[in-house]
Amino acid sequence: MESTYEQVQETVAFIRQRSKTQPRVGIILGTGLSTLSEEFVVEREFNYGLLPFFCASTVASHQGKLILGTFRGVPIVAMAGRLHYYEGYSMQELTFPVRVLAGLGIEHLIISNASGSVNGDIEAGDIIFLRDHINMQPENPLRGHNDPRLGPRFPDMLHAYDRELNVWAIERAKAHDIRAHEGVYLALPGPNLETPAEYRMANILGADCIGMSTVPEVLVARHMGLPVFVVSVVSNKCFPIAEIQPTTVDDVIATVQAVEPKLRKLMGDIVARLDEQKK
């Protein structure tokens, strides 16, 4: 059986044979955010299920495509929709695309998601730039044999998130009339939404938002030495407990899409900022 490293190389070669784009920034578009891809100038796109060793996305709100092209003139590769642990994939399977993005040569990874607020001062429709996370998912994508060609056995997580970019992005969000915060994300496996007791637990532990993704992708990105920037759109307020309302996936998507026109402009600013820093 081929090693993960060899599988990554094979997938990267497959893409490079069919695309001329040399991406500098990678983007993962989460729940309700895949329409941001409408602003990309697409050079080539691939359905996940047609790429070597990729798994197909089974979530209706995720397009399940890998897109190469430009965004605001910057060469990018974007995952229009992610894979989740609750879909039944292993942590290694769902994070394999992150390793491919790194193999394609990106210098920075932007991740987006939707989350529930467990901070009483953060409302639905706000956005949170992650400064840290609490991992309560039952598996870790780095578990098992470590291939040093992919990264170190024990990657340090002290500076997992780009705090300097967070400060800049919070100020920039004001220009787009977006309420923005810096906060801590707590990851659970899903797919059920959390119970009131779990929301209270998250608040006690120091989390500002709660969700079902992102952390495995961050772990693998940091394992491979990629700088990470995460923006989380608050889809529903989950604290204080007395303010919790029943929530459906349609509610989550509707809230995120209401913010998306402003978020599109902000994401363009962020990509341009990262590109400027690399020049």
Description:
This protein is α/β, with parallel strands linked by helices. The chain has a domain at 85-143 and 150-278: Nucleoside phosphorylase domain (Rossmann fold, 3-Layer(aba) Sandwich), CATH 3.40.50. It has helices at residues 4-16, 91-103, 163-175, 196-205, 215-223, 249-278, and strands spanning 25-29, 41-47, 65-71, 74-80, 108-117, 127-135, 180-187, 209-211, 228-237. It has a 5-stranded mixed barrel with strand order 5-8-7-6-9, surrounded by 4 helices. Helix 1 crosses helix 2, helix 2 (91-103) crosses helix 5 (215-223) and helix 3 crosses helix 6 (249-278). The longest helix is centred in the last third of the chain and has 30 residues, at 249-278. The chain is globular and about 55 Å long. The termini are far apart. The mean pLDDT is 93.
How many strands, which pairing sense, and closed or not: the largest β-sheet? Answer: 5 strands, mixed, barrel
> Helix/strand/pairing class, anyone?
alpha/beta
Mean pLDDT: 93
Q: Give the CATH topology of the domain at 85-143 and 150-278.
A: Rossmann fold
Q: In one word, what is the shape?
A: globular
Task: Kindly provide the name of the CATH class of the domain at 85-143 and 150-278.
Answer: Alpha Beta
